Amino acid sequence: MDVERNSFTEQRTRILGQLADGETYSEISSADRARVKEALHRIDSRLESAGGVDRLTAQQKSDVFNDQEVVNTLLTQASDDSRLVCRREKKVGSHRTITECMTVAQRQRAYENAQKTMRDVKVPTLEAR
Asked: Structural domain boundaries of the chain?
């Protein structure tokens, strides 16, 4: 993210639009979505009050940099998790292949749920008399 005044305004508008479209960052949590919006607002406020990047104090530049890192980290993770992956698989008991599309995060949740289900299965044991 670039914090030059005009460039930042365009980027902020684009990011907020992508957060609202429900596709680009579909796997971002509501808490992370709020953190991104808050960080963008703080950056915007600092740039507005100082009149541009060149007029920021060292502390303000540090704060803007930290907020940039928050935004970049959260959006990168959400983008990676929101990536759609399609696989052609044969279902058990059938010779027909189907295409199954899920986001990376959906696949991870399915994997974790399958692991949990297998751990929770109670195996009957024979008791000695």
From this structure: 5-82, 84-120
